[in-house]
């Protein structure tokens, strides 16, 4: 058992029967009264962030989680199939726990977080940026670059990303998987 003195951003705790990761925390020592710790916790199943206040020194259960490297193989109706990079073990994961399934390509490297005691997959995270090829977009008007106007573009995974007017079909772009926004054009 640990206490609130062991809090660090990113640790996983067992709280109210669910697993939460600590997003941020702040130790508060008021001039009058007992010290406490103000936190923001993210539920690993739903992704919802909740605020919570712990009394200083209260006991907490730290859950053991492991991040393992996997590679995306293919999608089927039951979910997404991934293969461990070192052991070649395959695992089927539901779409709900993948942070950006619309940007998954075959042989894409991902990191899957598992609960160590139950071997249950908790989340699947793509790299912060992925390179994709624009398969279809309307042509932009030449010389219309005075404003930051964006147009929709379909990428090779089938997702739609809003890109600047100068991006054309067949170009490689970098997309932020956390927000789904265009980041930059990739120079070949």
Description:
The chain is flat. The chain has strands at residues 2-3, 12-15, 18-28, 36-43, 49-55, 59-62, 65-76, 79-84, 90-93, 109-115, 120-125, 129-137, 150-155, 160-164, 172-176, 182-185. It is mainly β and 188 residues long. The mean pLDDT is 88. A six-stranded antiparallel beta sheet has the order 1-6-2-3-4-5, with no helix packed on it. The chain folds into three domains: 2-62, SH3 type barrels, CATH 2.30.30.30; 65-125, Beta Barrel (OB fold (Dihydrolipoamide Acetyltransferase, E2P)), CATH 2.40.50; 130-185, OB fold (Dihydrolipoamide Acetyltransferase, E2P), CATH 2.40.50.140.
Output the keywords.
SH3 type barrels, 3 domains, mainly beta, 5-stranded antiparallel β-sheet, 188 residues, OB fold (Dihydrolipoamide Acetyltransferase, E2P), 16 strands, 6-stranded antiparallel β-sheet
Mean pLDDT: 88
Number of domains: 3
CATH overall fold name of the largest domain: SH3 type barrels
Count of strand segments? 16
Strand arrangement across the biggest beta sheet = 1-6-2-3-4-5
Number of helices: 0
End-to-end separation: 52 Å
Low-confidence stretches: none
What structural category characterises the helix and strand content?
mainly beta
Q: Would you identify the CATH architecture of the largest domain? A: Roll
SS strand fraction = over 45%
What overall form do the CA principal axes indicate? flat
The profile of the biggest β sheet is: 6 strands, antiparallel
């Amino acid at each position: 058992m640990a206490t609130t003195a062991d809090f660090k951003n990113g640790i996983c705790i067992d709280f109210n029967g669910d697993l939460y990761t600590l997003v941020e925390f702040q130790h508060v020592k008021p001039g009058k009264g007992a010290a406490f710790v103000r936190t923001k916790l993210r539920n690993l199943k739903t992704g919802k962030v909740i605020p919570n206040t712990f009394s200083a020194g209260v006991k907490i259960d730290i859950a053991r989680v492991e991040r393992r490297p996997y590679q995306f193989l293919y999608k089927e109706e039951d979910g997404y199939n991934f293969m461990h990079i070192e052991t070649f073990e395959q695992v089927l994961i539901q779409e709900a726990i993948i942070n950006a399934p619309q940007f998954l390509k075959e042989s894409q490297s991902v990191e899957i977080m598992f609960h160590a005691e139950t071997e249950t997959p908790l989340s699947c995270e793509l790299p912060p940026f992925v390179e994709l090829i624009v398969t279809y977009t309307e042509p932009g008007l030449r010389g219309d670059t005075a404003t930051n106007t964006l147009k929709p573009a379909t990428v090779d995974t089938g997702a739609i990303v809003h890109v600047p007017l100068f991006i054309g079909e067949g170009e490689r772009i970098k997309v932020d998987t956390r927000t789904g926004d265009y980041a930059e054009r990739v120079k070949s």
